[in-house]
Amino acid sequence: MKIIIIGTAYPYRGGLSAFNERLAKEFVHEGHNVEIQTFTLQYPKFLFPGKTQFSPDAAPKDLEIVRKINSINPLNWLKTGKEIRLQAPDIVIFCYWMSFMSPCFGTIAKIIGKNSKIKRIALIHNMLPHEPNIMDKFLPKYFVKHIDKFVTLSKSVIKDINLFDKKNLPKVCSPHPIYDNYGEPMSKQIARKFLNINENDRVVLFFGFIRHYKGLDLLFEAFANQRVKELNLKLVVAGEFYEDPQSYYHKIKDLHIENQVILHTDYIADNKVKYYFCAADIVAQPYRAATQSGISQIAYHFEKPMLVTNVGGLPEIVPNGDVGYVVVPLPEEIAEALVDFFEKEREKIFIENIKTEKVKYNWETFAHVVLSNDY
Q1: Are 215 and 308 in contact (CB under 8 A)?
Q2: For the packed helices 15-29 and 363-371, what is the interaxial angle rounded to 10 degrees?
Q3: d(Cα 285, Cα 183) in Å, to the nearest integer?
Q4: pLDDT digits over 314-369, tens only?
């Protein structure tokens, strides 16, 4: 089939770009003709909280990525929609993650819909954001009404779509596949040497951009717990601040955990991701809110136990007590899990279970669900 994916991709950085590019590669592998149409302008600079929207890595090989879409120019939306309609693809997949994109994506989808032979699929990462604003009450409805079917990565997102979908359109959930595009696993010794971390340390990893809903402050408080202190753990924080970092610096100082925390708070390039995961004993996601998480799927690839909170779709992909822990997002609960993991030396058994569990999260299955007519 001829498939067009609309969403973020190289030269833009981040997990969503990686997801779209990996999905496109799977479609290509299966013999489809695939093009990604991404942005000439994704966000105005004043709306982007990070240092840069652009990737420092090389362009992905063997993918057709066209920069075409301006997220704030209605004339561009009209033009793009007409051009795609003339291309007459079999399927257009909108990779949607925030209400800001609703007018742009909705208008393109509306124009494409004038050709009834083109199937419009929305692949929804988040229907509602973790930190909502007034736009989220009305903008998604415009996008939703111009879609033919929906694919989500967690069950909670289907509930969010239903807030805006008055037609009872087809919806299916398929778990986030494993991110296998960050390189092959390596030994802890090699990874820690690269990151200048002591080979004998016990290491907890917090990975990804830092915002309040990610709960890094809760993890700091857990590290101040006396039982955790006695374990002599190191917390590696690897990811860029998307909000004022001063409150985090103050918290580290106030909790007297300066010697326990290692901060790598620049953007982590794709070719460095493997070092952080391979250096860790366990990956912690102490989120206050979530839908699903690409971080968990990177941890699965590198066969790392996980500590997640019982929010959104996280418990769906981390069986509690088998591959890690699912806890209430409270410092004392997080601390208890860390103590259990290290004192009872659960790493080996968790890793063995991960090897079995990860098999279900493959791209072939996910691609089939996206293209299937069975829902």
Answers
A1: no
A2: 80
A3: 22
A4: 999 999 999 999 999 999 999 999 999 999 999 999 999 999 999 999 999 999 99
| pLDDT score of 374 more than 70 | no
| H or E stretch covering 340 | helix 331-343
**Residue burial 192-218, b: 16+ Cβ < 10 Å; e: rest:** beebebeeebbbbbbbbbbbeebbbbb
Calpha distance 126→156 (Å, rounded): 9
Least Cα distance to 219 among 137, 308, 296 occurs for 308
Structure-block tokens of residue 223: 């590290």
What proportion of the chain, given as a percentage, has pLDDT over 70?
Answer: 99
Which residues, in sequence order, are bridge partners of residue 91? 3, 119
CA–CA gap between residue 66 and residue 38 (Å, rounded): 6
| Closest by CA position to 56, among listed 118, 11, 103 | 11
